[in-house]
Amino acid sequence: MTFTGFGEDAFDFYAGLSADNSKAYWTDHADTYRAAVREPMEALLAAVEPEFGAGTLFRPYRDVRFSKDKSPYKDHAGAVVGRTDTGGYYVQVGADGLYAAAGYYQLAPDQLDRFRRAIDDEINGPALERIVADLAAAGYRIEGEQVRTRPRGWPADHPRLTLLRRKALYAGMAWEPAEWVHTSDCAKRVTDAWRGTAALIAWLHTHVGASTAPRERR
């Protein structure tokens, strides 16, 4: 299937789901989800695979086991591309528009240790600062889980404390609903956003890399 953009009803589908997040709504609009969201997303993943790797579309159902919010469905469709423990690329569509991001979304303890030691380094730390500043200036959101104050063992007056507080780091580009999302140009917007993070991905691969900790048995 060739990617020609998300369906004309994609944004309206999620706007309706936000207003009525119920099994009845989903059942009544299942064909719209399939045609306007799921199939186009699968086509997009196939289109970007040669350059970025295989992708996976996340299930539309929320895990409500430990949540006070029992709404059964996610308010967006998200997919990850090239996912490993060294990060990956992400894309999602929902009522508020389109979002594409890249980086390391969750750091294992050994990765987090290397991440912070590299930030502390007087060469590698400022290099990451410049990369992050350039991305922010280009319109990217700099995101990732962070501690509230400072990580244990690091001084409160560290010159790169903002980065040290991060427990993950990725950069994302967001677009409000627009007609081009329903065209093949959407794929170029997404891949251009991913390519724009190349310096960040290279820094993370070089200074953090994959976790070397043994995997826990389940």
Summarize the structure in words.
The chain has a six-stranded antiparallel beta sheet with strand order 1-2-3-4-6-5. The model has no long low-confidence stretch (mean pLDDT 94). It contains eight helices and six strands; from the N terminus they run αααββββααβαβαα. The chain is of the alpha+beta class. It has one domain: BirA Bifunctional Protein, domain 2 (2-Layer Sandwich). The longest helix has 23 residues, at 30-52. The protein is globular.
**Alpha plus pi helix count:** 8
CATH homologous superfamily label:
Protein of unknown function DUF1054
Query: Which stretches are low in confidence, meaning pLDDT under 50 for 5 or more residues running?
Result: none
Largest sheet: 6 strands, antiparallel
According to CATH, what is the topology? BirA Bifunctional Protein, domain 2
Mean pLDDT: 94
Distance between the termini: 38 Å
Note the topology:
Blueprint: H1 10-19, H2 23-28, H3 30-52, E1 55-57, E2 76-84, E3 87-94, E4 97-104, H4 109-120, H5 124-137, E5 141-143, H6 161-164, E6 169-175, H7 185-195, H8 198-207
Antiparallel strand pairs: 1-2, 2-3, 3-4, 4-6, 5-6
Keywords:
single chain, 218 residues, alpha+beta, BirA Bifunctional Protein, domain 2, six-stranded antiparallel β-sheet, 8 helices, 6 strands, 41% helix, 17% strand
Can you summarize this structure?
The protein has 218 residues and is α+β, with helices and mostly antiparallel strands. The protein contains 8 helices and 6 strands.
